Amino acid sequence: QAQLVESGGGLVQGGDSLRLSCAASGVTFSWYVMGWFRQAPGKEREFVAAITRSGDSSFYADSVKGRFTISRDNAKNTVYLQMNSLKPEDTAVYYCAADHDTAVHTDTRAYDYWGQGTQVTVSS
Fold first, then answer.
1. Residue 80 and residue 102: Cα distance in Å, rounded?
2. Which of 4, 37, 64, 80 gives 115 a disulfide partner, CB atoms 3.0 to 4.6 angstroms apart?
3. Interior CA angle at 105 toward 66 and 57, to 5°?
4. What is the pLDDT of residue 1?
């Protein structure tokens, strides 16, 4: 049974940094494109970043480009999201997701497995 477990969320001030981690089990991790999504209260879940199976390419939402970095360690079955220069509008529950595909998708419907989410709160 596939399982994704996020960690690293918390309460920070604007301008601070956080590093989220997502540990995968029950899947052949290197077969999956990995993505990070977020959902703020009253809003739909939105794409944040994704990384190819080998980790050689990454993609970002315009709102986080230049501030967030996605990476993965296939030996540790873990994907990361380094978040710098955090803003109050980054406040959301952050989810990691796995897509058994070769192409990178930004649509939530493309992803096969999801974590339970980790809360990130950025105060002004």
1. 19
2. 4
3. 50
4. 85
